[in-house]
Design brief:
Elements (H helix, E strand, L loop, with lengths): L2 H6 L18 E2 L2 E4 L2 E4 L4 E10 L6 E9 L3 H15 L11 H16 L2 H12 L3 H29 L3 E3 L2 E9 L2 E5 L7 H12 L3 E5 L12 H7 L5 E3 L4 H10 L5 E5 L2 H10 L7 E5 L4 E5 L5 H13 L9 E7 L3 H13 L2 E2 L7 E3 L7 H14 L3 E2 L7 E2 L2 E2 L2 E4 L6 H4 L6 E7 L2 H10 L2 E2 L1 E5 L3 H11 L5 E4 L15 E2 L2 E2 L4 H7 L1 E9 L2 H12 L13
Parallel strand pairs: 1-5, 8-9, 8-11, 9-10, 11-12, 13-14, 13-23, 14-21, 15-16, 20-21, 23-24
Antiparallel strand pairs: 2-3, 4-5, 6-7, 7-27, 12-26, 17-20, 18-19, 22-25
């Protein structure tokens, strides 16, 4: 089947959608969560469109999923004030609650969240075009992350339940919350990536204002009641709307203590500059990346190609951890591209719910035009689209384009495409690859494919001080979630993993006294009478 014919049959008619995946009535959302109550928004709303289009005799037409509130600055600041009141300078019920009790609230939320699996998975498919398998995986992985976070906090609290004696000083060290947190996640993982900051922030005792991603906004709606019912009033507040209108006002207020954001480094920098006391703002940022894959001359070519295709095209390349540029030794370039093209040709384009589908429509308006300009720029400067059908567009769908040979003169060599365009750069001297990484503004990850220990070792040492993770004979990726996930340069600030995230959203506090009889008796009385949530030897099972 040719690419053209595949795209001709790409979008379904309404009757061709399986009943299990059809949408019901349009979701006209007016609710947002503030201070433990679902508020009704009577103002303007934003239309929510699906990347899925429907075929008809008059051509393809976009699917309107519904609408979401376009809150103004006043409404957003009302949500922030609720979080500030709930935190109450660290004196509120939530930040002073015992760890075991906070865990109980998060477990209650997890139980309610699991009840909404089907609704959230369906909206993941329709809102961002993620296929069924990956949508289910995102939901389940998020639930697993919450469980792992709970267990990690139990371990952390157990180690903090004892007193330490050093040089005549008796003390107990515990981690305590930082304050009011603003959480914003990305559209490519609107549930998982968001919750990897939201849940640690909550469970450590911070209060939160959460703004969903620009795409994947409706899928939060099934969870609003779970948030409302599982946490005390004001602890979690959910707002919607334009970031320029809402988030700018939140940051300019100076009341945000922690900024958890996954997006572009430019947006993060612009928002941080609005804070009047930036030295008091803690940030956990996951930002841009231009992760290179390096194919060395001595290599398992089949593995390199397989990992490169998965790394570059999973969820259509819309991942910060995607392989976004491939450096292939000139002696292998032709063979590599042949195998790469065969693998891509075997990928099934289609709708998210179709069995075995690997390539789906893109949610961003204008994305196909942007990718087409990258391809045109590369072609104008000497590259060619070397795979059949590469770069063909139908509505919101862009068929993967392999560009070769790519050079530094081309935009795609430098820009993060965040989509299904694969630039392949031939190289002769390994220093060319090293210089690319050294000179790059980004430093999230890199992949090295090769079996020559000397060359692999050289690249590992060259990249170790440049990126957060080096993958050998494997694609770039985030998991397992117990491993650190970070980046250097413009790619990140802070480290996120199940363990690290608990530390990012907290700070160590020490209560100490001289080791003498009256002080020991005082501490003993406080613990036995349970007169402090901080000074305690409780052991969480």
């Amino acid at each position: 089947m040719t690419t053209e014919s595949r795209l001709y049959h790409l979008f379904p008619t309404p009757e061709q959608i399986p009943p299990a995946f059809r949408l019901g009535e349009s979701i006209e959302q007016r609710e947002y969560l503030v201070d433990g109550r679902l508020q009704h928004w009577a103002g303007p709303v934003a239309t929510v469109r699906s990347p899925v289009q429907l075929a008809s005799a008059d051509g393809d037409r976009p699917v309107i999923l519904g609408s979401a509130p376009l809150l103004d600055a006043e409404a957003a600041l009302g949500a922030l004030d609720a979080a500030v009141r709930a935190y109450d300078n660290g004196q509120g019920p939530w930040p002073t609650l015992r760890v075991a009790e906070r865990i109980g609230h998060v477990e209650a939320f997890l139980g309610r969240m699991r009840e909404q699996r089907e609704a959230v998975v369906k909206l993941l498919m329709w809102e961002i075009g993620k296929n069924l398998k990956d949508s289910e995986k995102e939901f389940d992985r998020t639930c697993d992350y919450i469980v792992d976070t709970i267990n990690a906090l139990k371990d952390l609290d157990r180690s903090s339940s004892r007193f330490e004696l050093e040089q005549g000083t008796l003390g107990q060290i515990r981690r305590v919350p930082l304050g009011v947190t603003l959480c914003m996640g990305p559209y490519n993982y609107p549930l998982n990536e968001t919750f990897t900051t939201l849940i640690p922030a909550l469970i450590m005792g911070n209060t939160v204002v959460f703004k969903p991603a620009k795409f994947g906004v409706l899928l939060v709606r099934p969870l609003l009641e779970a948030f409302r019912d599982s946490f005390p009033a004001g602890v979690i507040n959910v707002i919607y709307g334009s970031g320029r209108e809402t988030v700018s006002a939140l940051m300019a207020s100076g009341k945000v203590d922690v900024f958890a954001f996954i997006g572009t480094h430019k947006a993060a920098s612009d928002l941080k500059k609005l804070h009047p006391r930036p030295h008091r703002l803690r940030a956990a940022l996951g930002l841009d990346a231009k992760n290179p894959g390096v194919i060395l001359p001595v290599v398992d070519l089949d593995n390199a190609v397989s990992e490169a295709v998965t790394g570059a095209l999973s969820f259509n390349g819309q991942r910060c951890t995607a392989l976004k540029i491939l450096f292939v030794h000139e002696n292998l370039a032709e063979a590599f591209i042949d195998k790469l093209n065969q693998k891509i040709a075997a990928l099934k384009p289609g709708m998210p719910w179709e069995a075995g589908v690997a390539l789906t429509p893109l949610p961003e308006a204008g994305k196909t035009d942007y990718l087409a300009t990258l391809v045109a720029d590369a072609e104008a400067k000497g590259a060619r689209v070397v795979n059949a059908g590469g770069g063909e567009v139908r509505g919101s769908f862009f068929y993967p384009a392999v560009l070769y040979p790519v050079s530094a003169a081309m935009r795609v060599y430098h820009e993060e495409q965040f989509g299904p365009v694969i630039p392949v750069v031939p190289y002769r001297d390994l220093q060319t690859v090293i210089d690319y990484v050294l000179d790059s503004d980004f430093g999230q990850q890199a992949s090295i494919f090769g079996n020559d220990s000397a060359q692999v070792g050289r690249l590992v040492d060259a990249f170790a001080n440049q990126v957060g993770r080096i993958n050998v004979n494997a694609q770039c990726q985030r998991g397992p979630d117990t491993f650190p996930f970070n980046g250097r340069k413009n790619s990140a600030e802070g480290t996120l993993s199940v363990h690290d995230a608990l530390r990012v959203f907290s700070i160590r506090t020490l209560v100490a006294t001289k080791y003498q009889a009256d002080n020991k008796a005082l501490f003993s009385d406080i613990i036995q009478r349970r007169e402090s949530s901080f000074l305690t030897t409780d052991y969480i099972f």
